[in-house]
């Protein structure tokens, strides 16, 4: 997956410089999340891609750091947001100390994590969050893995991308098992002509 995103990083960054794909209700969930974190919170944009959500979080008064598994995406994110610290790292092995952040934003970044690695992602999230910190997870809902690289292949990129679809109850239960409590949820239908799948956002608190 890292190699695929390295190949398409520049095209992705050019096509989605900000919140073009998001609906107002999606952004409202991010605003609700930020509102739970207190004044000038420390927030990790985990799986930050080209940095478009890191910029949004900064605009809302957060002190942001970003990580992504793809060096190509990190390069694009640093170019777009030179004032935000962004590095290469995995959600399964975050390069931060315990209780570093008030909030974690995982905006469509767990979708490429296979089920067997989700417990590690969950435990790492809990480790780097401060007590009563919050985690936001956004994802396409459904069941099981799906190959989703067709759009990039039509543009001439020789890539394969697997996306893991999950039900909100199942993902919430996964994080709850590792010491989180769900505090808010969005579960919406796809926008006709734009999206193929239902979309979900979970906000969870570290208990």
Automatic annotation (TrEMBL):
Annotated InterPro entries: Methyltransf_25, Methyltransf_Superfamily, SAM-dependent_MTases_sf
GO terms, biological process: methylation
Record's keyword terms, sorted: Methyltransferase, Transferase
GO terms, molecular function: methyltransferase activity
Gene3D superfamilies: Vaccinia Virus protein VP39 (3.40.50.150)
CDD domains, alphabetized: AdoMet_MTases (cd02440)
Pfam families in alphabetical order: Methyltransf_25 (PF13649)
Superkingdom of origin organism: Bacteria
Domain Methyltransferase: 43-133
Protein name from the UniProt record: Class I SAM-dependent methyltransferase
